[in-house]
Design goal:
445 residues, GMP Synthetase, Chain A, domain 3, Rossmann fold, 4 domains, five-stranded parallel sheet, 19 helices, 53% helix, binds adenosine-5'-diphosphate, binds magnesium ion
Length: 445
């Protein structure tokens, strides 16, 4: 049994501290601490939500703790910290849910109905983050907290965030979930400031069990809102409530205060990478299937080879193809794809350009032999083609003039001279400029 003494002592300590700290800090850091039944005049057993609350308490109040609580032989407060996770669950629901107030109308979670785990295609680039998201959804507040998902545009961050939202709503019905974009959070705050209802808003956010925040990068340069966000964040996390955040960059690259960056790094930081070719094909086939479109695998590979940095664009491709097929009754063939999608296609990832490639391309286009280009012939056509090859080599290869010269068996000043000559020529010769552009494309794509 918790002795009255221990309980009273803790109460007195809290009263003392309450007068010396801000209400927010008090509510976020001290209120979540519970005195456990076994505490007595010799030792205190405190249940804390996480290691940060313990650190906060000891860093800020060690001296005061020594005045109020029992002290051990080395003069330290005699406290045993127990993390909430180590204790048996108090109820079957993974989180102690806050009683729901009559505001279910405000409590409107906007989740995209197609962003669910079961239609998120897994591949090596997103396997880790997907399992982390599913882990969170299964046991909100009890695995990684916060989960911070970052990665480029159109790679499925919002999809996973909403996936967590759907799963929690369906499997942990008692939990209060809110999914918001950072913009919406800021707008909400502005509205509430205007209506002098910030306290209501604070109460609302702090009563959530799971908070899903999309695109935190929009909090950058919004100084006034950073603090309120950080307070909400601390309040929730210290009550063991789950937070998931998405961002286009990792926490350390966000221009936000050190305090908030550190908080975001507390839990698990997971990266969504670019999907590899097989995953892109699987995504294409999945999206096509949803639209009732049949794409031969060869064609799916062809599309996936050319659209590789953004899943949203893969979806765009499918939508366009599907419209063509529906409206014009076409079959999906490589030709149709070439005609309808070529402007969506991205230039291939740059391969390392070699002198041999350049020579081959120039030789083909200007109808000379590679051996002529390497030789010393001074006929007009060959000399021009050779100079073009040197010009392209300087432009496309990350090599010094000396190295390029050596590959051509020439001095670096010959290369420089060739470059200047071609630069001059293309100023006035449009046809030559176009030929060179064609050649360049042929080399890099
Ligand atoms: P982000 O938030 O990272 O910019 P989104 O989550 O909005 O990207 O994803 C863009 C689109 O691509 C969405 O329609 C989403 O459903 C889809 N998408 C992204 N990754 C996948 C995936 N692995 N499987 C299925 N669809 C995906
Ligand atoms: Mg997004």
């Amino acid at each position: 049994m918790l002795t009255c003494n221990a309980r009273d002592t803790w109460k007195q300590f809290l009263e003392y501290v309450r007068k010396r700290t801000s209400l927010t800090a008090y509510e976020n850091w001290l209120v979540p601490i519970q005195v456990l039944d076994v505490s007595n005049g010799e030792k205190f057993f405190l249940e804390v939500p996480n290691v940060f609350v313990k650190a906060y308490l000891l860093d800020n109040y060690k001296k005061d703790l020594c005045s109020f609580l029992p002290v051990d032989a080395s003069g330290e407060p005699s406290i045993e910290f127990i993390y909430a996770e180590q204790l048996p669950k108090k109820q079957s629901s993974p989180l102690p849910s806050t009683p729901i107030q009559e505001e279910s109308d405000v409590f409107d979670v906007k989740l995209n109905s197609s962003y669910r785990f079961d239609n998120f295609i897994e591949g090596t680039s997103n396997q880790f983050v997907k399992s982390a998201a599913m882990g969170i959804a299964n046991r909100p507040g009890r695995s990684y907290n916060p989960l911070f998902i970052h990665g480029g545009v159109g790679l499925g961050k919002t999809h996973l965030l909403h996936g967590i939202g759907h799963f929690v709503r369906e499997n942990h019905k008692k939990l209060r979930v809110q999914c918001i974009t950072t913009e919406a959070f800021i707008n909400d705050l502005v509205d509430n400031l205007r209506n002098k209802s910030v306290d209501k808003m604070k109460k609302f956010y702090r009563s959530l069990d799971v908070l899903l925040v999309d695109d935190i990068q929009f909090l950058q340069n919004r100084l006034n809102f950073e603090e309120e966000f950080c307070n909400t964040f601390e309040s929730l996390i210290n009550q063991g409530k789950q937070i998931v955040i998405t961002s286009d960059k990792p926490p350390s690259q966000l221009k936000l205060s050190e305090r908030i960056v550190a908080r975001m790094e507390w839990g698990l930081v997971a990266h969504v990478g670019l999907p590899d070719l097989e995953t892109r094909v699987a995504i294409l086939q999945h999206k096509a299937g949803q639209k009732g479109l049949t794409i031969p695998n060869r064609v799916a590979f062809y599309i996936a080879e050319h659209i590789y940095s953004n899943v949203r664009q893969l979806e765009g491709a499918i939508n366009r193809l599907s419209a063509h097929c529906r409206l014009l009754g076409h079959e999906v063939t490589e030709e149709l794809v070439e005609n309808t999608l070529s402007e969506l296609f991205q230039p291939g990832p740059k391969q390392k350009v070699s002198v041999e490639n350049i020579l081959k391309s120039v030789a083909t286009l200007f109808q000379v032999r590679v051996s002529d280009l390497k030789g010393t012939s001074r006929t007009k056509e060959i000399a021009l083609a050779r100079q073009i090859a040197m010009f392209l080599a300087k432009e496309l290869m990350q090599e010094s003039l000396m190295m390029i010269g050596a590959s051509f068996g020439k001095t670096h000043s010959t290369i420089l001279h060739a470059c200047k000559t071609i630069e001059e020529k293309i100023k006035s010769d449009e046809a030559l400029k176009r030929q060179i552009a064609l050649c360049r494309r042929n080399i890099v794509e």
